[in-house]
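re: that chain from earlier
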Amino acid sequence: MGTMTFGGKGGFAYVGSTGVPEARRQVDLCLDAGVNLIDTADVYSDGLSEEILGQVLHGRRDEVLVATKVRMAMGPGPNDAGLSRHHILSGCEASLRRLGTDHIDLYQVHEWDGLTPLEETLGALDLLVQAGKVRYVGASNYAGWQLMKALGTAERTGLPRFVSEQIYYSLQARDAEYELIPAAVDQGLGVLVWSPLAGGLLSGKYRRGQPPPAGSRQLTDWYEPPVYDQETLHDTVEVLLAIGAEHDVSAAQVALAYLLTKPAVTSLVVGARTTEQLTDNLAAADLVLSADERDQLDKASAPPLIYPYWHQAKTARDRLSPADLTLLGPYL
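^ sequence. v structure.
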């Protein structure tokens, strides 16, 4: 379960403004459905998302794994952002206070920091693990080379190794298949997918030749995720709607069920503005798509093979690993 919709403070009001009563209903719904991990971040609504989650989990903290993140700016000062030892340690203490807990199950670096040595970042995370304040560490929004550099640094120094990566991955943009999914397969990382519905673009509400729904933020000046090819997006949505009609389910359920079949994907981080949306999204766990349906979606949304992958598909096909085949398999 994702909680970026909790709070609605500042710019996050565009995403949602769920308060404590509705947040409690949504968490109850997720727990009843078997969800056992709830994801948040210190920057969501300037800490308010963590505070709401802490209130909702009071008295039942041990029923779930709690994941949060550190890296983004939490104040105006030069040390209020980044992955320095100072910011990580102070950020963790602040998150623990807001969450009302003594430990974080999965503490994720929210974004790459190219100015802080990885040894310092991983060393700070090690201090938190050794103190029992953090159980596991993960990365989010890293490029492939950055992820592998971090894993190599951890192995070389004996510092904590990332166990997971939280990434953007959806039928709207399958860029993660170039490097991040193969790296997860090769390195044994879990993959948590944020915004698996592309911020609602894959919900079926956005149709070719029709204006965006009233009050929607997508296909306007909202930049996340960016849409570079609206025609491919609309083609994909049409396939989603057609498959959904065959199963009598929503396009959103089809999009989520598709991602759950992809290599290395451990879980989808699903948030919703309303209980109705959340109920619909959770039902995707029970939807089984046929091989033909998955193939239709693959073809509608396939990313082009960029270099060196088109070259490898032609000349290295005799010696490809399981990680290579996550991308190149359909092209052979």
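The mean pLDDT is 95.
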